[in-house]
Amino acid sequence: MRKSLALTTLLMIVSCLLFSPTFAQEATSEATPESTPEATPIAAIRLPSVDPLSYAGNILVAGSSTVFPLTQRMAERFAQEGFAGRFIIQSIGTGAGLERFCVAGETDIANASRAIRASEIENCVAVDRTPIEFRVGTDALVVAVSSANDFIDSLTIAQLAAIFSGQVTTWDEVDAAFPAEAIQVYVPGTESGTFDYFVEEVLLGTDTFADEDAAINAIIGMENMQLSEDDNVLVRGVESSPYAIGYFGFAYFLGEADLLRAVPLDAGAGAVEPIAATAEDGTYPLARPLFIYSDAGIMLDKPQVAEFINFYLTNVNDEIIDVGYFPASTEALNRARQNWLDALGN
């Protein structure tokens, strides 16, 4: 019966992936006043009410360091409202988290700062799991410099690609007006979804490299570069020098905003700062979706997991801005909530 449910859910997921609009396409095309009336606001899907007092047991979560503080906040709130069980939440990077979920089959939920890959779905199916995607928010990936940096006003995506691939090694090679000082680069670890996203959007998106392997090899071979799966290490490194630069999720920037500066990015239409409005409308070049993944079989076998995800999707917008991220659109949250209902057979 479980395999039948998993197959049905897999078909549903594949259908959604094939026919649903992508994150980048969620905004509808601009309509002319003559042809289209004012859009009616989308009504939010309501999930069944949750009583955390009624549930106990363990909930095991691992994955993205970016999604970690949001999931941690939701877990704390779930416990505060009466959950008698135990959370184990590990910040190990999206790739490593999906490996534990899809290969080892050890965890109940995977945090992810990128969408799951086809190869990872295949790994999940091999261990009798069908990953179900729940969109929980939006991040504006911040490129940051120290507050002591007084020479960068903005950077183009092409300049960013050159800096983070080692094509330039001193700041005056980026711009002749910048000082002739070595660039100190801080990069998320290669297991991080943040690393994957940056490689795809910046290095491959600007055709700096022909393929992912070439881009990764260039990054790993850079001088004056530090890799770390711990975003706090990256933050402290960038703060340490006016000639340092790094990138990480908005929440980590927000926590140290007095010691860091977010660099406005120009993708061809002028420099744009990472703020709520530009993350929502997609004009900030490095806005990205945030996810958690689980499986219908896990949710049925461990009702505390299903109810925590329900609680998460119902209350996330009450917490997400305070954590340091931005709400997903109502449409995106509705898809996540419908995925929850479908997984539970509602």
Task: Describe this structure as you would to a colleague.
By secondary structure, the chain is of the alpha/beta class. The protein has two domains: about 1-20 and about 40-140 and about 290-345, D-Maltodextrin-Binding Protein, domain 2, CATH 3.40.190; about 140-285, Periplasmic binding protein-like II (D-Maltodextrin-Binding Protein, domain 2). Helices cover about 40% and strands about 20% of the residues. The protein has helices at about 1-20, 70-80, 95-100, 120-125, 155-165, 170-175, 195-205, 210-220, 230-240, 250-255, 275-280, 295-300, 305-325, 330-345; strands at about 60-65, 85-90, 110, 130-140, 140-145, 155, 185-190, 225-230, 245-250, 260, 265, 270, 285-295. The protein has a five-stranded mixed beta sheet with strand order 2-1-3-13-4. Helix 2 links the parallel strand 1 (about 60-65) and strand 2 (about 85-90). The two termini are about 15 Å apart. The relative contact order is 0.20.
Features:
single chain, about 350 residues, alpha/beta, D-Maltodextrin-Binding Protein, domain 2, 2 domains, 5-stranded mixed β-sheet, elongated
Please summarize the sheet with the most strands: 5 strands, mixed
CATH architectural group of the largest domain: 3-Layer(aba) Sandwich
Mean pLDDT: 89
How would you name the CATH homologous superfamily of the largest domain?
Periplasmic binding protein-like II
First-to-last CA distance: 17 Å
Q: What percentage of residues falls in helices of 4 or more residues? A: 40-55%
CATH class of the largest domain: Alpha Beta
The helix-strand sequence is: HEHEHEHEEEHHEHHEHEHEEEHEHHH
What is the number of E strands?
Answer: 13
Radius of gyration: 21 Å
How much beta, percentage-wise? 15-25%
Q: Note the total helix count.
A: 14
Count of all domains: 2
If strands are numbered along the chain, what order do they take across the biggest sheet? 2-1-3-13-4
Overall geometry = elongated
Instruction: Flag low-confidence runs.
Output: 1-37
CATH fold naming of the largest domain: D-Maltodextrin-Binding Protein, domain 2
Query: Structural class given helices, strands, pairing?
Result: alpha/beta
